[in-house]
Amino acid sequence: MKFDAVVVGAGPSGSTTAKNLASKGIKVLLVDKEKFPRKKPCGGGLPLRTLERFPFIKDMNVIESYSYGGYVHSPSLKNTIEIKKQEPVIAMVQRDKFDQSLVDLAVDRGTLFMDNKVVKDIDIKLYNARVSFLDGTSVITDLVIGADGFRSIVANKTGLSRNKPFFGICILEEFPLQSEIIRNLYTANHFCHIFSKFHGIMGYGWVFPKKKYVNVGLVTYKIKKTERYKKLNLKRIFYEYLSFLQKTHVLPSSLKSTKMQAGLLPVQPLHKTYTDRVLLCGDAAGLINPISGEGIYYALVSGDIAGKVAVNAIKSQDTSERFLSRYQKEWNQDFGKEIKLLLKTKDQWGKEGERVVELMKNDKKFAELIFTIMMGKESAYDLRWKLIKRYLYTKIHTAR
Fold it and tell me: Are strands 138-146 and 278-280 parallel, antiparallel or unpaired?
């Protein structure tokens, strides 16, 4: 069977790419190794700039609730800052419902979708590419788009992957709760909780209330094969985190952990996200916020860009590396500077977690800027000078 394009991975980036291709009359196959709808290890927080850029999401009926603020807790737990806004700071979704709705949009545009379809091999040839599946079938295509996550087989099989000494790992669970209990615990404004460096992890913990669920998780960033990595038992820390949240009445004491999930996250973009007949987007390309671990916004935007570049490549009958290189130029121009800035400040954020929360406590405007960036409401790159000026102002005035 022959397709113009095969998209591997039906998360937000893959579905968006497929939708763009099919909308322009491109014959596209979208495959995923999981049976849909499927659960995805994710907090389910959707930055509001996502809704501004992709307004059709509001029409999908997938927004569970909005949060209008929250609490940021310092590593020592001695400092807590409350942020309360009149407008939402983040939207909440259930990933199984959200991802399925994006797949449905792609199918409505003409995409052929096959779930429970595991890719075994990818062979890039001079005039086409062959995608082979574990069930023994294969297809021929002009272009392969890898949207298949951190352990991307597309990246591995095409030489774009590289050794990943740095990576993130998240562990989380979503608990069903009655709406009345959610309102009592998190108010009608669905206040979130962020715990910086809980138990000393190089990351943070979160509590995200939704309409009928509360999502609780931890994310930490590691270096492979270090002693600290070997000794760190994130599962144990997660249970300690749940116990702490119950003792401090952030969670009901009656909740029991039964369906814990875990997943790996990239920390930085791959050096190259394209080659002959291949594009990578979303987590497969390493496109993620390296501080918060949020990746839905970058997945959707990179999928949108990949789809547009792929349409031009296929219609021009040029899927060469040279032609496809414009994809990386475009995502770099769009959000690459933001990711680069966050990578530069990542270590500083980790070292000064306590001090940052202290400064937030002393300056409401500084606190709101930090919270806005943490929730992904606005681009850290766009706010960089405003943040630097406010940080210096707050530090000077606090020292007096």
Answer: parallel
